[in-house]
Design goal:
mainly beta; 5-stranded mixed β-sheet; 22-stranded antiparallel beta barrel
């Protein structure tokens, strides 16, 4: 489809979809059917998932899914996406960073946490809406009904940003009877407390309501090394989340659900749990600036696993006023972070007839975030009496603003015969503004700007507007009573326009090699379209054995990098007028999987297995070149992943005791030319294993409920997760390798069998195992001498004492 016809179709479809949203508003709002189905499933007991945008049992759906129920999440105090890792092998989560703010990866495939220009390869679906910002990963979650992790490409039903999989989160809905729940805990290691509660019930016979809120305050999220020159010697964080849910059933043929959530996150810096490894030379390399004219002692020790961080405030020479109206002004170089998110979702289901249902899902997301930190990860100046003065360099104040509107319409059939279908259309309109002042050169060590007084090298603003339109159709055909053929195709058209402005450049930097102050790029365009087909064959050998085989494809649109610095890639593009170097290509996946889902011994034992093989072309990658102090965005030629996933559950003969286990084998390897910069040279990673791709990973969990009386029960549970290690980056042939490790979680609780009250002692990461999630070069190293690098790590041990009530 040419651009002119695509724009006409886009405009027409946008009007049609907005009319669909308006229709939902007239009738007004989640679907009670989901709440009812879940309740029935718990009673049966059956796990219900929506891997194909409809309610299906976990054992019937021909998709590899790991489902984690709300009760399990509460038992282990899992309220952060990163905590889900111990339950889902090959899932890797990084939280923090000044760009996208987080990263999800599955089976060794993910997207950079550096650039907010990338969509996540693992789509993050929140109550039926795919959200584009990983900053929601930072805020955590609560009052959740279920989390589903879908592995492998899921483009047919989830569209864009699902080349590697989907992490789907469904929050709880109103209850049929009035119910009040409260929870409070204290965490001893990080010295934090959490308060949460909800009230839920029917306002009328047709309208239900649920109001829930949670506040979490942590004093010692990070403890700094002794003598760190920083105002905050312990970095803390606070989260506040509030959600309103309305569920309306005015007639048998109409169901509607509305959710509105507000999230506020505050912290003492964006870097998060990042430690410095002193590299092979074993010394803390100095911060090397201005060609060696300024050398700042690093100051940190070389113990990279003691959970004591050296995160200094900005040097006084660099802590002056910030260009524009940045909230960082007046804070004297002290790191901080603030994020506010409003999320709204309106879903309605209208039965057009006994066999046809129209579903509309409207999503709105508004985010305003800023964080400030010093990205030299070290530095101090000697002060009087052996004290240290702040020497942090490389500060920036990235301001991220996002407005996202999405509308999806689905028409699904429920015929009695052998044939059923689903047709759908999706539209997204998104505006993302990335506005940041940065110190890449740190020229103000020679003096502040003599004209403005600013101490920053430059201020730059990237504004990216995205418009995506897609249509999809799927069919399910019962070839026989036992054999089902299903499949479909999605067409996606995505267009992005970015403008770059640089309103300010330090006077000392104005000249060759830098863009001029007042630079404006004009529109930089990117457009791509794609057809993503999928076919699945499922054979139901009997009621307890399903065998399936699938062919799947995936698509994630390319775009325009927003990390280009005015000192290098942006200045080169501006000099030639060709901004093609800032464009990264779309990512695609193709492959398939075969598997079975089975239950035995009167369904007391479950065993599911999947073998998969996928090839990812033009995998979107971004790294940081610590020698040239530049962000490098590229497309990996080809990444091939193959492996096996196993899942089992056993309701043992011992009353109240159940066991579950997961095991994954993964082989992920770059199988085509993949050139990456290595200092001032390059390296080809073809043949190297992919990053964050453990060969073996798994977990085993035990849950034991012991009745003590009619009104008292004891609950014991534990989870042990194993990972045999992985490469943590994709910059060289010998990046840091995380060794194998175990994570242990445990819970001891006593309470009423109906959950009216419970006292719990919960431990996450009981052995305080610290592992590396990602790694990359430390900025401002002396070329040929410095070899320090940054390791983003997990949180350490957490021990909670908790009390909860429900009445």
């Amino acid at each position: 489809m040419n651009t002119f016809r695509a724009r006409i179709a886009s405009g027409a479809m946008r009007r049609a979809l907005m009319c669909g949203a308006a229709l939902g508003g007239l009738a007004a709002v989640p679907s009670t059917a989901l709440a009812q189905d879940s309740a029935e499933a718990d009673a049966m007991p059956v796990i219900v998932v929506q891997a194909r945008r409809q309610n299906e049992t976990l054992q019937e759906v021909p998709v590899t899914v790991t489902a984690i129920g709300g009760e399990t999440l509460q038992k282990y105090n899992i309220d952060q996406v990163a905590d889900v890792v111990s339950r889902v092998p090959t899932l890797n989560v990084q939280v923090g960073g000044s760009g996208s703010g987080g990263q999800l990866s599955l089976r060794g495939v993910g997207s950079s946490n550096i650039s907010a220009a990338f969509d996540s390869a693992v789509a993050f679906e929140y109550d039926g809406v795919v959200v584009s910002s990983m900053r929601l990963v930072q805020a955590g979650f609560f009052d959740v009904e279920q989390i589903d992790v879908l592995r492998g490409p899921q483009s047919l039903f989830f569209g864009k940003s699902a080349t590697a999989g989907v992490l789907s989160l469904r929050s709880a809905n109103p209850t049929s009877d009035w119910e009040v729940g409260m929870r409070a805990n204290y965490e001893f290691e990080e010295k934090g407390y959490l308060l949460s509660g909800y009230i839920s019930g029917p306002i009328t016979d047709t309208l239900g309501i649920r109001v829930a809120a949670q506040f979490n305050d942590i004093d010692e999220f990070q403890i700094l090394q002794p003598n760190t020159p920083a105002v905050n010697q312990e970095r803390g964080l606070t989260d506040f989340i509030a959600r309103l849910t309305l569920d309306w059933n005015p007639a048998d043929r109409f169901r509607a659900n509305f959710k509105l959530q507000y999230t506020k996150n505050e912290n003492d810096g964006a870097i998060g749990t990042a430690e410095v490894n002193c590299g092979p030379n074993g010394v803390a390399d100095s911060v090397f600036l201005l060609g060696g004219a300024v050398r700042i002692p690093a100051g940190y020790d070389c113990n990279a696993f003691d959970q004591r961080y050296y995160l200094t405030d900005a040097a006084r020479q660099l802590a002056g006023p910030v260009p524009g109206n940045s909230p960082a002004n007046g804070r004297n170089g002290v790191p901080f972070g603030e994020t506010e998110v409003w999320f709204g979702r309106l879903q309605f289901d209208l039965d057009l007839s006994d066999t046809l249902t129209l579903t509309s899902v409207t999503g709105l997301l508004n985010m305003d975030a800023i964080d400030y930190d010093a990205y030299s990860y070290g530095g101090f100046f000697p002060g009087p009496n052996g004290t240290r003065l702040p020497g942090g360099a490389g500060s920036s104040d990235p301001i991220n603003r996002l407005e996202q509107y999405s509308q999806e319409l689905r028409l699904a059939s429920d015929f009695d015969g052998a044939f059923n279908f689903m047709l759908g259309a999706f539209y997204e309109d998104r505006t993302f503004i990335f506005d940041t002042s940065q110190q890449g050169v740190n020229i103000s060590f020679l003096g502040p700007d003599p004209v403005t007084g600013f101490t920053y090298d430059w201020d730059k603003i990237h504004t990216t507007k995205t418009e995506a339109l897609s249509f999809f159709g799927s069919v399910m055909i019962d070839l026989t009573e036992k054999l089902e053929l299903s499949g479909g195709i999605r067409w996606t058209d995505e267009q992005k326009v970015q403008t770059i402005s640089v309103p300010y450049v330090h006077t000392f930097l104005q000249g060759p090699g830098f863009v001029r102050p007042g630079f404006f790029s004009g529109p930089i365009n990117f457009a791509d379209d794609n057809f993503s087909p999928e076919v699945t064959l499922r054979y139901q050998a009997n009621e307890d054995l399903n065998i399936f085989a699938s062919f799947k494809t995936g698509f994630k649109s390319g775009g325009i990098d927003n990390s280009a610095l005015p000192s290098n890639s942006l200045s080169q593009a501006a000099a030639t007028g060709n901004f093609g170097s800032l464009i990264f290509q779309s990512e695609e996946a193709i492959g398939g999987e075969v598997g079975f889902k089975s239950q035995w011994a009167n369904r007391d034992f479950t065993l599911n297995a999947t073998a998969f093989y996928y090839v990812f072309t033009d995998l979107q990658v971004q790294n940081f070149n610590a020698v040239t102090v530049q962000f490098v965005t590229s497309n990996a030629g080809e990444l091939t992943t193959k492996g096996v996933d196993l899942e089992s559950r056993w309701n043992t003969p011992v009353d109240g005791l159940s066991l579950s286990a997961n095991l994954s084998y993964l082989d992920a390897q770059y199988t085509d030319t993949f050139i990456q910069p290595l200092g001032i040279s390059t390296v080809d990673l073809n043949g190297r294993r992919g990053s964050q791709a453990p060969e073996w990973a798994g977990n085993i969990a035990a849950d034991w409920t012991i009745p003590l009386s009619d009104s008292l029960e004891l609950f014991l549970s534990g989870n042990a997760a194993y990972n045999d290690g992985y490469i943590t980056d994709e910059a060289t042939l010998n990046d840091y390798v995380q060794p194998s490790f175990w994570l242990l979680d445990a819970n001891v609780a006593i309470g009423h069998p109906d959950g009216k009250w419970r006292l719990s002692l919960v431990a996450q990461n009981l052995t305080d195992e610290i592992f590396v999630i990602t790694s990359g070069g430390r900025p401002f190293l002396q070329p040929g001498v410095g070899d320090d690098f940054i390791m983003t790590q997990n949180r350490g041990r957490q021990v909670f004492a908790e009390v909860s009530f429900k009445f």
